[in-house]
Amino acid sequence: MSDKNINFLRDSLLKTNREGMPDLLAHMQDIGFLTAPCSGGYHLAKEGGLLEHTVNVMKCAEKLGVAWLGGAEYNKIHDSVMIAAALHDLGKCGQFGKAEYVPNILKSGKPSDSKPFKRNPELLNVPHEVRSVAIATMFVDLTEEEQHAILYHNGLYGPFRYEVQGSETPLYMLIHFADMWASRVVEKEE
Questions:
Q1: Which of 34, 102, 154, 182 is most buried per CB count within 10 Å?
Q2: For each of the chain's 190 residues, which pLDDT tens digit applies?
Q3: Which residues pair with 137 in a beta bridge?
Q4: How far is CA 137 from the centre of its chain?
Q5: Which residues on adjacent β-strands are paired with residue 117?
Q6: Three-state secondary-structure class, residue 112
Q7: 165 CA to centre of own chain
Q8: 92: how many CB neighbours lie within 10 A of its CB?
Q9: Contact between 153 and 176 (Cβ < 8 Å)
Q10: Which three-class secondary structure state does DSSP give residue 10?
């Protein structure tokens, strides 16, 4: 867990001036966002992996947005890009006092090297995309497009793969492709 990543996340979200953001940031810390793994055994399956992935997505989304839209057009949606990118995987912290990922202990009693975490069997199977929106909206009002981008950010790889077809928006596509680039390219190089 890097102070640089914590500061980037905090500063980027606070700069949006969205009402309730300080309370959401405090809640994110309380529910383990800063220390949670990003996955069970794929990308950044380590302590602090979720924060690292989130910052990677935020930075990729900004670069893509400027490249694809140009500076002036990107600036019109900058706050929404930062919010949706920062919160797209918020639900990976789990909910109701239960973590999404727990240590994956093998029958031998040793932790798994190949898949160090597993989905928490005590947590009902609600997609993390849904949890992300539910948790965020307890503190901040998300726009319709922000909710859409968060819910569908996994595109064809998520539970809502058929619902997003024909409903793509620039914000959704920026978050989706930034998430894919971060998880499949940036985090594979680390």
A1: 182
A2: 689 999 999 999 999 999 999 999 999 999 999 999 999 888 898 999 999 999 999 999 999 999 999 999 999 999 999 999 999 999 999 999 999 999 999 999 898 988 999 999 999 989 999 999 999 999 999 999 999 999 999 887 777 777 777 888 999 999 999 999 999 999 986 5
A3: none
A4: 15
A5: 103
A6: coil
A7: 21
A8: 23
A9: yes
A10: helix
Q: What number of helices (H) and strands (E) belong to the chain?
A: 8, 2
- As a whole number of angstroms, the distance between CA 102 and CA 8 comes to 26
Residue type, 19: E
Eight-state DSSP code of residue 111: B
Q: What is the pLDDT of residue 156?
A: 77
The span from the CA of 71 to the CA of 6, in Å, is 26
Q: Which tokens in the block code for residue 4?
A: 């640089």
Q: Which of 173, 132, 138 is nearest to 150 (CA)?
A: 132
Return the pLDDT at 190: 56
Listed residue (90, 94, 71, 66) closest to 13, CA to CA: 90
Domain coordinates in residue numbering, the chain: 3-189
Q: Using CA atoms of 71, 142, 51, 92 in order, give the dihedral in degrees to the nearest 10.
A: -140
Is pTM beyond 0.90? Reply is yes
3-class SS of residue 105: strand
